[in-house]
Amino acid sequence: MTTKPVLTPRITAKPFLKWAGGKGQLLEKFARLYPAQLASGDISSYHEPFLGSGAVFFNIASSYEFGSAYLYDINDELITAYRVLQKDPATLIEFLYRYQQEYQGLNDKQKAEYYYEQRNNYNLQRFNISYSRYGETWVPRAAQLIFLNKTCYNGLYRVNSKGAFNTPHGDHKNPAICDEYNLLAASKMLEKAVIRKAHFKDIRKDIGAGAFVYLDPPYRPISKTAVFKSYSKFDFTDLDQQKLARRFRDFHEKGALLMLSNSDPTNHNPDDLFFDDLYQGFNITRIDARRLINNIAAKRGVVREIVVRNY
Ligand SMILES: C[S@@+](CC[C@H](N)C(=O)[O-])C[C@H]1O[C@@H](n2cnc3c(N)ncnc32)[C@H](O)[C@@H]1O
Q: Which of 59, 70, 74 maximizes ligand 1 atoms within 8 Å of its Cβ, making it the mutation to test the pocket?
């Protein structure tokens, strides 16, 4: 007698935070650009050095099998939240459920007051957290970040030059502060991941043949005065983009499969071939990254993302 194979349903999860530069809208287009080895099961490790909301990681982990995942970002708060979700989703959910109950019971004015109270407390507490060592302050810290992210304006994580979170209150009618199902699914996906605060220059030893690395560094500012400072108090300069390109060549020589994305500078200046020059010799593709929102640049049809691959 033959037995039918049992199909175990795959867990799917989406980002539990909204993050500037999040790639959620590009996933369908990206899927056509992933290496064939993902579908054939020949990727032994997946690496994402500029994790943010992890849109690409959650998408890939929802769709493909691969050995292990290495997730890194320079932002302490982000890494703290990922590690808490990985280690103790049940307690995190309890905290978030409490936030949800309290917030939803308030009128609009009280909601704003509650938000600013939490934001103030979040900024003060940053000096009392040991980010390098998992401790009892981590779960409430992660819950507070998720609460602020779900209720702030546009879900934008933005800090000032001193590192204080300064996004104003948003006007979401019914924000999903505690999306228990997704948090549990995301936690399951993170179970075996290595999650580390790291600068992109410090991940070299993890990468070798059989690795697939997706790199999504901060966008290059359109003008010299428009340096985007949302992610951390540190800028990501042209020099950093150049250093990253050197790492890209290094990882390429180590035998890894690489995909990097950035906003296409030719959107604003047709002569600005910064990335074409930097990644000369690799496979460069431009994809339409127009969003559905009513955006003037989108109407003009000049929102392209540049994607560089070594395969
Ligand atoms: C464009 S965002 C990534 C967005 C992500 N792909 C997503 O879908 O949400 C860039 C990320 O790089 C991180 N970052 C900035 N400088 C870094 C550095 N030197 N090394 C590692 N990560 C860095 C930022 O904290 C930010 O989360």
A: 74
Does the C-beta of 82 come closer than 6 Å to ligand 1?
A: no
CATH number at residue 206: 3.40.50.150
Q: Helix 89-104 crosses helix 180-190 at what angle (to 10 degrees)? A: 160
Q: Structurally, how many domains does the chain consist of?
A: 2
Last residue of a domain, one of 181, 212, 233: 181
Ligand 1 center from residue 282 Cα (angstroms): 22
Q: What is the pLDDT of residues 204-223, one digit of tens each?
A: 999 999 999 999 999 987 76
Q: What is the dihedral of CA 23, 145, 180, 184, to 10 degrees?
A: 70
Residue range of the domain that includes 28: 24-74+198-309
Is residue 58 included in any domain, yes or no? yes
Please check whether residue 256 lies inside any domain of the structure: yes
Q: What is the pLDDT of residue 1?
A: 47
- Model's pTM, two decimal places? 0.92
For the ranges 25-29, 169-173, 280-284, which has the lowest average pLDDT? 169-173
